[in-house]
């Protein structure tokens, strides 16, 4: 039940990803693919507690109250690890496979340029 709630939380917290159209060119794809390969074994072996800590850390570092802007590698490091964990949940819970697959794709497809633009907006 907790795992299903986490998947639901992942979907709810990423509405911007739902609205994004697939770009025709992706200048960050190579970096994201390299990070995906680098973090695979780490992320799929996270415990629930480790994932919660990673997820919380990501939102604290990228939130509107934090003036620091992450580097591309830092930002994509978080999103790729969250995507891997989401994918793992789909493997562990077959009933949640489609939701996990969708969530994983949304996290993998988040754009650094969107993040930087959101940081530059004045509240």
Any overview of this molecule?
This protein is mainly alpha-helical and 123 residues long. The chain has seven helices and no strands. It starts with a helix and ends with a helix. 25% of the residues are buried. About 15% of the residues have low confidence.
**In sequence order, what are the helices and strands, one letter per element?**
HHHHHHH
Radius of gyration: 14 Å
Question: In oligomeric terms, what are we looking at?
Answer: single chain
Number of helices: 7
- Name the average pLDDT: 82
Say how many strands there are.
0
Major sheet, described briefly? none
Query: Structural class, please?
Result: mainly alpha
Which residue ranges are poorly predicted, with pLDDT under 50 across at least 5 consecutive positions? 7-24
Question: Shape from CA axes?
Answer: globular
Estimate the strand proportion. Answer: under 5%
Helix content: over 70%
Give the N-terminus to C-terminus distance in angstroms.
Answer: 37 Å
């Amino acid at each position: 039940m907790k795992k299903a709630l986490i998947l639901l939380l992942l979907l709810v917290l990423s509405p911007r990803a739902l609205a994004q159209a697939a770009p025709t060119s992706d200048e960050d794809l190579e970096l994201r693919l390299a990070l995906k390969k680098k973090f695979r074994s780490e992320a799929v072996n996270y415990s629930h507690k480790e994932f919660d800590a990673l997820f919380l850390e990501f939102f604290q570092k990228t939130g509107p109250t934090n003036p620091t802007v992450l580097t591309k590698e830092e930002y994509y490091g978080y999103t790729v690890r969250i995507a891997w964990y989401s994918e793992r949940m789909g493997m562990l819970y077959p009933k949640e496979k489609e939701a996990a697959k969708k969530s994983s794709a949304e996290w993998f497809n988040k754009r650094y340029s969107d993040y930087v633009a959101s940081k530059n907006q004045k509240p």
